[in-house]
TrEMBL record:
<dbReference type="InterPro" id="IPR016786">
    <property type="entry name" value="YdeI_bac"/>
</dbReference>
<dbReference type="Pfam" id="PF08818">
    <property type="entry name" value="DUF1801"/>
</dbReference>
<dbReference type="Pfam" id="PF13376">
    <property type="entry name" value="OmdA"/>
</dbReference>
<feature type="domain" description="YdhG-like">
    <location>
        <begin position="17"/>
        <end position="113"/>
    </location>
</feature>
<protein>
    <recommendedName>
        <fullName>YdhG-like domain-containing protein</fullName>
    </recommendedName>
</protein>
<dbReference type="InterPro" id="IPR014922">
    <property type="entry name" value="YdhG-like"/>
</dbReference>
Length: 198
């Protein structure tokens, strides 16, 4: 399936916002950005760097600016989607009845492009090491194949699994989670792989 078809399908799937998403897409298509699909939704890149993306939800739709922290936001459109967590990403959120002003949207996109070309970027902090919960350690001690498969995963995937088990409050939940993920680890699949590269 082509990227264009994937984006069209995404827009069609979000019927409530399809007209508005189409309008935003047309603004993006007038730029030098490459339209792609990452994490299941439309994204726009330049020289392999994420610039922006479109997202649709039940009660709103919006534009994500991946290095939006550098945008001047002259029209006060941007919010930090996860205050305290998100460092660079900013969202322009639209709800029912909000107008889309193409010239203002285009200004924000152009500024994001210029910022990217100027090298403005908040680098993600790399997490060090993986803290493996005792239950997972015990399972790997009793199953060398599981241990080998776990250590063959990327540090990020190892962390996802460790946090998945470690975040459970009850022992029974930890055990059921271990049972669920063991076959996935043996197959070399990440916990969230099915949501990536859609």
């Amino acid at each position: 399936m082509t990227t264009a078809k994937k984006v069209s399908d995404y827009i069609r799937k979000h019927e409530r916002w399809s007209e508005q998403l189409t309008q935003l897409r047309e603004i993006f298509q007038q730029t030098e950005l490459l339209e792609e699909v990452k994490w299941g939704s439309p994204t726009y890149t330049l020289n392999g760097k994420l610039i922006a993306g479109l997202g649709a939800f039940k009660n709103h739709f919006g534009i994500w600016f991946h290095q939006g922290v550098f945008l001047k936001d002259r029209h006060n459109k941007l919010v930090n989607a996860q205050e305290g967590k998100t460092k660079a990403l900013r969202q322009w959120k639209f709800v029912e009845g909000d107008p889309i002003e193409p010239e203002i949207v285009a200004q924000y996109i152009q500024e994001a492009i210029e910022n990217s070309l100027a090298g403005k970027e908040v680098k993600p902090e790399r997490k060090k090491g993986v803290v493996i919960p005792d239950l997972l350690k015990q399972a790997m001690a009793g199953n060398p194949k599981l241990k080998e498969a776990f250590h063959a995963l990327t540090p990020g995937k190892q962390r996802e699994y460790a946090e998945y088990i470690g975040s459970a409050k009850r022992e029974a939940t930890k055990e059921s989670r271990l049972e669920k993920i063991s076959p996935m680890i043996l197959e070399g699949i990440g916990l969230y792989d099915k949501y990536k590269n859609c």
